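Dear colleague,

Following up on yesterday's call, I've attached the two folding results inline so they're easy to grep. Please treat them as preliminary; we haven't cross-checked anything against experimental data yet. The first protein's sequence and structure tokens come first.
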Amino acid sequence: MLQINNITYGYTPNLNVLENFSLNYSEPGVYGLLGKNGTGKSTLLYLIMGLLRPKQGEIFFDGENTKERNPEQMKEMFIVPEEYNLPSIKLPAYIKALKPFYPNFDSQLMVKLLELFEMTHVNNCTMNAEGIPEINLGALSMGQKKKIYMCIALAARTKLLLMDEPTNGLDIPSKSQFRKVVAQGMRDDQTIIISTHQVRDVETLLDHVTMIEKNCVLVNQAIDMEQPVNLEEMFIKALTAKE
């Protein structure tokens, strides 16, 4: 499904963030990509999307090289960056512009997820004829924008969804809502990769955990939800063992 083969990438000529790095995911599910700040987690997500291109190596999603940015492949890929902005337009207009790129977009699912985030009547907005709240995206706080965009990302119904530090900027109740939104919004055959260092925010969601440090994959294993593990302890142990 997702093959990352010996990639090297750096933002400056003499310093690589990732070097000869490989990682494979063969089954759908929710994957946690964990590591310290500066280990290349965000860079890896952008490389997977084809927004960055490796100096060496290749990344394949469903057999196609992601750096080619094939439009048919892009319909099945979506990324939620850590930081972004939204235009000063209303949500229905934004969705209308987005839908042609994501033919599986499910407006009803988006509204359901917005309800879980308690966002359907933010700023006393009303619903349009299709039941989509007329939210002015430009008037939202950063936390509210994150909620909106994560609902849009899940409603796009892509086969691959990448989220970079999705819980940053969310308050404690919203972090709990986030877990419900992902659990209820994801497809059965979907692969979601969540890059984060806030492990407690996502650990109950994860089917699989990957921990990276300095081009090394320290841990890459499935999680048995009947025998939950402390991911913080696992990461510390993995770092200690590497040293």
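Below is the second protein, in the same order (sequence, then structure):
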Amino acid sequence: MITEFGKVFIFFLVGGLFVAAGLIAAWILRPKRWYPAKLSTYECGEIPVGDAIVKFNIRFYVVALIFLIFDVEVVFLFPWAVVFKNLGLFAFIEMLIFLAILFVGYAYVWAKGDLEWDKPSPELPTVKSIVQDFSVNVKETN
């Protein structure tokens, strides 16, 4: 007699075999016509230019994380709003504290400047200015 765990194991085993059979059949039946365009990086006809590793600006990640944080936190408001009348004053005060914490996080992100997309780039020193500063320092020490 098979237990419930045995039935689940057989289900996973049959599912795994089904996936493996599909992959093996696709590997056997697929056409094997290799040509240079097929082996290139892009199959759209574009010639690859430059390095494949591109440095992305960190602001993309910061904006994505800020969106995820506030989006996930706002999801907690919907179940609370649905049963708001049944919860009472204690749950209302808890939600006010929760919203205050969210507001403090939002104010911090705003004050830090992470919500501004177009930040001014820092002024980098040029080689000429570094050489001039060095030559001034050398003359002063002599």
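For the second protein, one point worth flagging: The domain at 7-117 is CATH 1.20.58.1610 (Methane Monooxygenase Hydroxylase; Chain G, domain 1).

Best wishes,
A.L.
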